[in-house]
Write the structure tokens for this entry.
Amino acid sequence: MRPLRWRVAAVAAAGLALALEALPWALRWLRARRRRPRREVLFFPSQVTCTEALLQAPGAGAAPAQPPAGCLCRLPHGESSLSRLLRALLAARASLELCLFAFSNPQLGRAVQLLHQRGVHVRVVTDCDYMALNGSQIGLLRKAGIQVRHDQDLGYMHHKFAIVDKKVLITGSLNWTTQAIQNNRENVLIMEDEEYVRLFLEEFERIWEEFNPTKYRFFPQKKRGH
Amino acid sequence: MRPLRWRVAAVAAAGLALALEALPWALRWLRARRRRPRREVLFFPSQVTCTEALLQAPGAGAAPAQPPAGCLCRLPHGESSLSRLLRALLAARASLELCLFAFSNPQLGRAVQLLHQRGVHVRVVTDCDYMALNGSQIGLLRKAGIQVRHDQDLGYMHHKFAIVDKKVLITGSLNWTTQAIQNNRENVLIMEDEEYVRLFLEEFERIWEEFNPTKYRFFPQKKRGH
């Protein structure tokens, strides 16, 4: 009897050894199968492309950028840094926080309105000097019913970041103006990163509270230089 | 003889099982002991503090920010977003790439000159409109022998990033001006991240080559708006 018992024990131990050896590999395989967090860098200026496909489709953002049926424009219909930025924004399903010094690009304005129409909770913080400039999207966003708050400080509200679904941070040097998108050297990071999102969301909430309209002193003082 | 052989085999298998079970934990422990890559977010405006300790010490950057002997200034001597930014820059030992729209803050200018004096290879790319403004550090850097190249485009060279020792990327919304540091809402990311460093370094090298003085057409056209 004893040899058999030992034989069983040995086989069991060997089996256990193999299983334990396989465990970390299996875990690693499972982890690798999970989607890699989004990490992207966009550089500007980038080629001007048609973005109608992204902005017209009812479920825009998920579909590849195909020219919409009947699009007669002569712009190229491929990817560009702007289309990638639009796609990252249009992925929002629940919330979008925007903290933007200047916001005048019509395509980005349409994307934000589209998200609002789809029920995404959009909040915008901006700079009080730049929001009143010609071509600013801020008035249109407010008209559409989107909450906007602005500073009344001597300094500029110079951030240029967005937080999508409290999961993805979009930040960089780019002001959301057509001039910057088409002519300037700019960078935008798109980062699915819990720690960075948390820190920027805390900054957004701080500013959001500080710029609460109940605290506005009309009218803000004139600002110093850039 | 057989039972003994089986007994030895069983003990060996059990030992192997234990060793294999311990292996991933040991690896994880070793990995955890390694230094975590640097990840920091700085928000501005921040408290104005004395940065002399950082800028006067011969091996500045590594030492904690203590007031230098004889510092009579009444500023607080603790940490601030500016002192953290200075520390991140002053950690450079081999190379520093700067790609800056506006650079007029004297403390940051002194830090860059200090690095150049210590033999760090400094290269600067900047915007041709802003480099000529009052208080710009660019002339002082050139006078100190640091290589500077600028755009001659219609658009702005609007990046605001630095790469330290080709290992750490410093990027955000902050122009390197005292006005921005002390008054604006700004963010700066400090990231020890191989992938981001590679992408931004490639962008730097592209711009560096494009702004080669042999390609300058004197004088650049007047720019459009911001």
About this structure: The beta strands of chain A are 39-44, 95-100, 121-126, 147-150, 160-164, 168-172, 186-191. The mean pLDDT of chain A is 89. Helices of chain A lie at 2-33, 52-56, 81-90, 106-117, 138-143, 178-183, 194-210.
